[in-house]
Amino acid sequence: MPPHPRPRSSLRAATVVAACLALLAPGAAEAVGHKDGHPRDPLQRQLEELVRAPGGPPGIIAVLGDGHRRRVVRAGVADLDTGRAPRAGEPMRIASTAKAFSGAVALYLVEHRLLKLDDTLRKRLPTLPRAWGKVTLRQLLNHTSGLPDYSQTQAFADTLRADPHHRFDSRRLLDYAADQPLRFRPGSRYQYSNSDNIAVALMAEAVTHVPYERLLAEIVYRPLGLHRTSLPQGFRMPEPYLHGYDVSPPEPTEDVSELIGMSGVWASGGIVSTPSDMSRFIGAYAGGRLYGPGRDVVREQRRWVPGGASEPAGPGRNDAGLALFRYTTRCGVVLGHTGNTAGYTQLIAATPDGRKSLTFSVNTQINERSKPELLKRLRAVQENFVCALLRGKS
Q1: Least confident of 72-86, 97-111, 291-305, 332-346
Q2: Which of 19, 159, 336, 349 shows its CA 20 to 30 Å from the CA of 93?
Q3: Residue 62 above 50 pLDDT?
Q4: Is 29 helix (H, G, I), strand (E, B) or coil?
Q5: For residue 4, pLDDT beyond 50
Q6: Distance CA 82, CA 201 (A)
C-alpha cells in the first residue's frame, strides 16, 4: 500500500497543478441483485495488481450492470487515512466524462428543436470572436471545431498556478483564448479541446435562457435519478468521498482531491458524481434514451470521426462521435467517454443499446504524458472488463 499522505508543500502543489494543466491539453436500471468481486476472481485480481503497480492508484472501483443486476469489483482504498474501501455511492471528480453531460444537454435541445447541429457560434454566441463564427455545434461536440484551448493559454495557467482555488467566471473562460485564431479550418480534422464543451454549454444557455447547472438538473439528473451528481464551483468535496491522490514515486503519496476549484473547468470537466450515478447515466446516454422517441439524433451522434480519441484513450480502437466515443475492443463495441484530472482517471461505457454498462474509476491520474506504461496496462485491464461485460460474465 502507498504511504499515507502528508501535508502538501507549495512546490509539490505547483508540480501537480502543472501536471493537471498539461493533461488539459489535448443504462440500465440499478441492479436488483448486487455482487462484489471474489478475491480469486480474475477481474478482482487484475485490480489488485494495478493497485500494487509502481505509481498505481491507492484504490479502484468498477461497476458492471446488465439491467438485472449490478456487480461491483474493487481493490485498495478510497481514503488512505481511514483505509475505507471504495464504495459505489461515494462522490468523486469525474473529469472529462463531464463532457458527455454537456452532450446530453445539447442533443436533448436538438431533439426538441431549440438547437440545430449546424447552428454556428456566430448565430448563437455573436459576442465571441468573429474569426470563430463559422464553427458549428456539431464540430464542437466531435472536437473538429479548431477552437484554441483556453486551458492551454499562459494567462489561464498563470492564474491557476498562483491560486489553484481561484474562482473563475465560468462563462468567461473562452476570453482567455479570444485573441487567438482557429487552429484549423472547422471540420477539417480532429483535436480534443476543453474550449469546445464550454461553448456547447454557452449555446445551451443562449437558446433556453436557463443556467447550465439547471439544465443539467432538469434534463439529466432528475429524469435518471442521479441524486449525488452536481456541478460545483468550488474545490470542496461532499463527505465521505472517494479521495484522489498524486502517486509519483519516490515522492510520498499526497491527497489532491481538493487541490483545484471546479470553476475553471466547468462544463468541460467539473462535475462530481458517484460510480452508481455514472453507471445509470452512461446506459441512458449511450442508448439514446435522453433524446425522446426519434432516432435521428442518435444517428447523427454516431457519425464517427476515425481515430478521434478521448483523453486518455479508452480501451481498444477509439473513434469520436458527438460527445461520445466508440471503443472497438477484441470482444465488441461499447460507447462512452474517459477523463482524468488531478487525483482521478475515469472510464464510462455502455453497449450501443444502453442495456449493459461499465464505470471504471481510479483514484490517481494516469495518462499518456505522465504514466504511459501504466496507461497501457490500465487500458488492457479495462478491455478485459469490457469483454466480461459483453460476454455476460459480469
Answers
A1: 291-305
A2: 159
A3: yes
A4: coil
A5: no
A6: 38
